[in-house]
Design brief:
Layout: H1 5-21, E1 24-28, H2 34-44, E2 47-49, H3 57-63, E3 66-70, H4 76-92, E4 96-99, H5 107-120, E5 124-128, H6 129-135, H7 158-172, E6 175-179, E7 183-186, E8 191-194, H8 207-219, H9 224-249, H10 253-265, H11 269-275, E9 278-280
Parallel strand pairs: 1-2, 1-3, 3-4, 4-5, 5-6
Antiparallel strand pairs: 6-7, 7-8, 8-9
Length: about 280
């Protein structure tokens, strides 16, 4: 497959629109990663708000440009805030990104994820491939909130997994983004494969949550497929740059994380053109 320059251009356009608009993104995310998600949204050029009290959700969604719902930490009070925020987002015409964290890890998570997808009706579902596979009804050997090694995407199986993601997106009527060694994004018709990133991203807690928050900022400024791809490519390229930096300077994971934010902050259209590995069937 050759790089798809049309989709790469859409990614650049969405990113530039996001930076110009500076959308306000309401992130109902989990306590483990909330600070990193807020700072990553700021680094990319958008503005985060992390409100989580149910009674203010309607007011918050009235002023926000997008809603991110992350199911990393479950609790009935938190879920009520999510339901109210989603209802308000639909009323005000604001896009919703849902992260089904831990789908396939427990019966509770499976039930909550299914309920939220049905009631929230998100514009984008962003999870790792094991989570997406579980939601689609496939067999998963769970590693908690991490993807199983059995679901690693490579050149030999990417077409098979691509069809799984496409079929699930068609069933849900939204864009589905499954991240991993090779990222797969589909709106139920088109299938996009992204090969940017570095394995060190897996050594930092919450890079998936950050990617979901970034997707919320992007979808506030463009169509769902291009927005999901833009967030994934931005984080992936930043991960490549950060890895190269720590290799050259003989640093470790702490420096990698700091440089990841730095490279997201300084990302330009030229970086996308030079580095973006975006392919389409």
């Amino acid at each position: 497959m050759e790089r798809n320059n049309a989709i790469l251009k859409n990614i650049i356009d969405v990113t530039e629109s996001m930076k110009a608009k500076k959308p306000l993104v309401e992130c109902l995310t989990n306590r483990v990663t909330i600070n990193d998600c807020a700072n990553m949204v700021l680094a990319m050029g958008a503005s985060p708000i992390m409100a989580e009290i149910e009674c203010e959700m309607r007011d918050i969604m009235n002023i926000s440009d997008a809603l991110v719902i992350n199911l990393g930490l479950l609790g009935e009070v938190y879920l009520e805030a999510m339901r109210t925020a989603a209802k308000a987002a639909k009323e005000f015409g604001k896009p919703i990104v849902l992260d089904p964290v831990g789908a396939g890890a427990s019966a509770l998570r499976d039930r909550v994820c299914s309920e939220m997808i049905e009631t929230v009706q998100p514009d984008i579902i962003r999870g790792n491939l094991s989570e997406i596979k579980s939601l689609a009804g496939g067999e998963v050997r769970s590693k908690g909130v991490d993807a199983s090694a059995d679901d690693a995407v490579n050149d030999d199986n990417m077409a098979e997994f691509g069809e799984l993601v496409r079929a699930y997106a068609e069933k849900c009527g939204c864009t589905v983004c499954a991240t991993g060694a090779i990222d797969i994004i589909s709106d139920g018709s088109r299938i996009v494969f992204i090969k940017n990133g570095n394995e060190m991203l897996c050594d930092v807690t919450g890079t998936g949550c950050m990617c979901t928050a970034m997707t919320g900022a992007m979808v506030a400024s463009g169509d769902a497929l291009a927005a999901a791809a833009a967030a994934v490519v931005m984080l992936g390229i930043a991960g490549e740059y950060a890895h190269e930096y720590v290799e050259e300077t003989e640093q470790g994971i702490g420096t990698f994380k700091v440089k990841l934010f730095d490279y997201v902050y300084t990302m330009s259209a030229e970086d996308y053109i030079k580095r973006g590995e975006v392919y389409c069937e």
